């Protein structure tokens, strides 16, 4: 047997032995890092809605440092009971019980994903207030993590809202009369756009010509100024020379009169030449004045042509029209609170309303609703509890999260009579698609009745809200109505009050970003 034939199997065996030894060392080191002294650790338990990805001996971290492991996971009713062991030097607090029945500033557990391959661990927050948790106490605060499934479910709800609004629009605009009206509207809009385009093109040429004329005027004025300044300088120099000569003559004594007469003759000759130069300059000025009066040149065209004055007047009218739109824009700030009698909770709303005119408005609202955002989830649960007759049963869970909502609507209205004004609106109402209507009574619309229909993706019927407001002061009003009218189990009555005022300072800020066109 050759040595080469023996070395190859020997190398393979040596490599296998080294790999097994390295694996044993790694497992021993990792196990040693995760093991804790049973006497120095404390055991707690918590209930989770979902423990997907967690397993026995999964790590527990605090600030990125392992402080414990999961001892056991078992089903307790419809939830999972997770028992954990935490290092004894980690102090956990129970927290303070608030009026809503929640422990605030207490110890909390949250399921976190360590990597994209599905490795999960528990993140521990020790808390800061309340009683120190003892061995065997529960950790009540469980932070729910939003996973991809729940995110897609929310997107699905939004898609359903959009589909419901689309179906509503199809119902409203799907008949032949509505289609003819829309076609007529599109034709009228096309005619308006064509007329506007022609107007812009025509005035663009005129404005270009006006700019060119202004440039020529500036050039001619510069030329006249430069030429006139040279003539004036010449006249001043000649006049100064004359004055000097006269002073010289007067200063001579009587004995030098004859000599002075000879000098005066030379001075008079120079004075004659100066007068001739002055006459020439005055003749040039007269020629320029005659050309201007006859309308020659840019300056003559500017002074004698009434078309330029008419165009300037049009530009001023356009500027005045724009300033008028800015002046007519109303920026209305609204703050109101509603007390719901059934739930005994407050609902607060901050609103900003932009009104280019009385027939159109844009409204944005920021809503703090005690109902929050509600989602309904139905699950089929297979339990191993022997006390349950049917091991496979269906469970429906309603989850409500405390989050803000917003509204963004476009509204139109018209005056039906001196005492009646009707209006409608469409857009996003409390973070869902919806529509609404308004009836204003009295000439100053101090009494208004409003309805809103939204939340078409609700488990039961859409949410219908009807209420009225009465303005007893220029800036203050009271309100009352019924919320969720067509869902008896969620129906609630409410009363409220609010303030509404025009903010001129806010309008000044908004005009720097554009003003809605009436």
From TrEMBL:
Q: Name one Pfam family in it.
A: MlaD
Domain Mce/MlaD per the UniProt entry, residue ranges: 41-127
Coiled-coil positions? none
Which keywords label this protein?
A: Membrane, Transmembrane, Transmembrane helix
Which parts of the chain span the membrane according to its record?
12-32
Tell me the domain of life. Bacteria
Spell out the PANTHER family in the cross-references.
INTERMEMBRANE PHOSPHOLIPID TRANSPORT SYSTEM BINDING PROTEIN MLAD (PTHR33371:SF4), INTERMEMBRANE PHOSPHOLIPID TRANSPORT SYSTEM BINDING PROTEIN MLAD-RELATED (PTHR33371)
Q: What is this protein called?
A: MCE family protein
Tell me which species this is from. Answer: Lujinxingia sediminis
